[in-house]
Each structure stands twice: as C-alpha cells, then as structure tokens.
Amino acid sequence: MDSIGHWIGQVRVGGTNARREAVQVLSRIGEDAVAPLLEALAAAGEDDLRWYYAVALSRIREPAVIPLVRTLQDHHDPDLRRYAGAALAEIGAAAVEPLISLLAAEGDAELRGIAALGLIRIGEPAIESLRRAVEGGGSLAAAAGHVLWRMEGPGLRALADLGGIDLGLGGRVPPA
Q1: Of 91, 123, 138, the domain-final residue
Q2: Are residues 117 and 73 in the same domain?
Q3: Measured between alpha carbons, how far apart are the two ends of the chain, in Å?
Q4: Cα angle value 71/72/76 (rounded, 5°)
Q5: Could you read off the pLDDT of 52-79 as tens digits, one per residue?
Q6: Is the Cβ–Cβ distance between 100 and 144 less than 8 Å?
Q7: How many domains does the chain have?
Q8: pLDDT tier, 163 (very low <50, low <70, confident <90, very high otherwise)
Q9: What sign does the dihedral 52-35-27-3 (CA atoms) show?
Q10: Are residues 86 and 129 in the same domain?
Q11: Where a domain ends, among 91, 115, 144?
C-alpha cells in the first residue's frame, strides 16, 4: 500500500513526466491499486488529476470494471461520474454488460446517460449485447435501441436488422 500511496501522490504533486510514470506503475500494480485510485479520483479537486487517475484505472482493465460501476452508482458528483464513465468506455468490451445494466437505472437519468455515452464510445464490441437487450423488450430495450441509434452506421444496421428493414443502401449503412 505504501508504494501505491507513493505513486498516487506522484500524480497529485508531480510534473507531467512523474504523473505519466505513476500511471504506468499503478496500472502494472493492477487490482490492488483499484480501491486507492478510486478514493483518489473521488477526492481529486481538479479535472487534470481525475484524468490521470481514470487513465490508470482504464489500464488496469477488467479488475477495475465492477468497482468503477459501483462508483457510478454510489456517487452523484458529476465530475467523478464523468471520469469513471470515461474509464469504463476506455476499458471497452469488458465493460459492455455492466454498462448495459446501468441503462436500466430508474430515477437516475445522469447515470443512464453516462452508460449510454460509454457504450457509444465502445462502439462495435457493444452492438451484439445491445441487440440482445433490444430483443429482450421493456424499458431496457428502449434505452438500448436509443444507444444503437446514436451509434449511427453499425448501430443503425443492427436496428434495421432487428426490424427486418432494408435501408435501401445496398445492404450498407453509410459510415458515421
């Protein structure tokens, strides 16, 4: 933990090179650094610091997914949520199912929006899971359909395929 604390401190007080090195070291430490990084992310008073902490979390990859999702659910600070959501989007495919589950968050439009933006940013790796959510029906289906629509090209193709719609474009949706 002392080493983790040291590197988190380097992000807080170091120059650009020290911060970059700290991100590399923290991401190599991996799962053990997730909780301290999330605490630092929550306590950070500046977007610059949040950015470095979010990058480190995103590079830890799958071990950071569920803790990041819990952070989104448990905290209502929009800046913290924005950076936690960005880290999940950067993680990519491993974050798709947890982000889809957040689309169903009743009474928290901001959380649903962050999840939607993350899925849009992930793009192609999220399409099949979003298609399944649409096929499942209910309010999650509507939210998943909206995300596919916002993805434009490949998302629109998935929606058209679900509805048996020929887009009249030679089977192709124009690129976004």
Answers
A1: 91
A2: no
A3: 45
A4: 100
A5: 999 999 999 999 999 999 999 999 999 9
A6: yes
A7: 2
A8: confident
A9: positive
A10: no
A11: 91
What's the rounded Cα separation, in Å, for the pair 176 and 173? Answer: 9
- Tell me the pTM: 0.90
Tell me, yes or no, whether 118 and 63 share the same domain.
Answer: no
Residues recorded for the chain: 176
- Report the candidate in 122, 130, 118 with the shortest Cα–Cα distance to residue 156: 130
8 and 62 belong to one structural domain: yes
What residue numbers bound the domain in which 57 lies?
1-91
Longest Cα–Cα distance of the chain, Å, equals 61
**107 DSSP assignment:** T
Higher pLDDT, 138 or 70: 70
Other Cβ atoms less than 10 A from the Cβ of 42: the count is: 17
CB atoms within 10 A of CB 69: 21
